[in-house]
Amino acid sequence: MDVMSTPSPDPAPALAAPPGAGGRLGAEGLRPVSEALIRARYLAGLIGYALALIVIAGCVVLWAWLGWWWTVFPALLALILALQSLLLTPRRVRALGYLDREDDLVFASGIMFRSVSTVAFARVQSVEVHEGPIERSLGLATLSVSTASAEADLTIPGLPREEAERLRALLARRGVETMAAL
Fold this sequence. Notes:
Layout (H helix, E strand, L loop, with lengths): L30 E2 L3 H9 L1 H21 L5 H23 L2 E4 L3 E6 L5 E6 L3 E7 L2 H6 L1 E8 L6 E7 H21 L1
Helix pairs in contact: 1-3, 2-3
């Protein structure tokens, strides 16, 4: 990953950082991803939530009919996993942010374990925009940036489709300009 020590001017105006972003690593000037990503993640998790509900119901039935008290443990595990997903998804999505600067693209993610990645435009080999059926229905897309190094690849989920296309065109244009300058 290439990390620039001096910030470059921002070609597009940055939106205000999300509330409570003060003090977070890399939160200054980041644009948040779309809030619609929260809904997309809930919709994508519906099968998991339904399975958790089936496990909980099955364990309660086994306990009531057969007296298997130990079925409380798998039921509690399923409940805890489903609740942490339901309760933490909005916070996880609000922790995502990106910023396109003059020479690079910055992406930050994570709540407890914060990660800030920077990919220089000169290192970009390919840029792809993906959208699944749920993303498409909500007008979202995922931007994938590939570099020569596997560790420097970058994926930004939850971008509005127009913003993902703008970033794809910007990265492709800047990559061509950089290669032409060599």
